[in-house]
Amino acid sequence: MSFDTAPKYRVLGNTETSKMRDLLRVFSEAFEDPQNYTSRQPSDTYLRQLLHRDTFFVVVAEKAGKIIGVLAAYELIKFEQERSEIYIYDLAVLDEHRRQGVATKLIETRKHVAANCGAHVVFVQADNYDPPAIALYSKLGTREDVLHFDIEVPTDTAKLG
Fold first, then answer.
1. For position 32, which CATH number holds?
2. Residue 97: which domain range?
3. How far is CA 105 from CA 36, 39, 112, 140, in A?
């Protein structure tokens, strides 16, 4: 008797808000960051609206019905040409499932979806202190060394004057 233990990969449907909560848990655990991923989760209405956007995509890896890896991406519609780019915003695989090709397969699945929506490139950022991510992305694409800047948004709109 053999059981298929290979993960299944799929794009999350636009009504799967409960799965969105599962993937937030995966990000929280994989990144050891409950403050950002599970402490102040959005409402079901917010998640439904997000999942209905044509420019937001989630690819999940599931094993025995549980999410073990997830990729969240956005389609960026370009202005200089009639095309788009896919930005992988977050990618995480639970610790016990790492080094098994899950992240690579998540990206490969996303590449097929990108091709179907007419995107010309998929891109992702990696932190200098994350050698495993750098190694993965180097294997799959061309490295560009760029700088990233977070520009703070004021919370007091009266200051925007």
1. 3.40.630.30
2. 8-143
3. 25, 29, 11, 11
* Residue at 131 is within a domain: yes
Q: How confident is the prediction along the chain (161 residues), in pLDDT tens digits per residue?
A: 445 688 999 999 888 988 999 999 999 999 999 999 999 999 999 999 999 998 999 999 999 889 999 999 999 999 999 889 989 999 999 999 999 889 888 988 877 777 777 788 888 888 888 888 888 888 888 888 887 787 888 887 666 55
Would 150 be classed as within a structural domain? no
Other C-beta atoms lying within 10 Å of the C-beta of residue 70: 28
What is the distance between the alpha carbons of residues 122 and 84, in angstroms, rounded to a whole number?
Answer: 9
As a whole number of angstroms, the distance between CA 88 and CA 137 comes to 11
pTM for the model: 0.83
Dihedrals phi, psi of 116, to nearest 5 degrees? -70, -25
Alpha-carbon distance of 104 to 106, in angstroms, equals: 5
The domain tally of the chain equals: 1
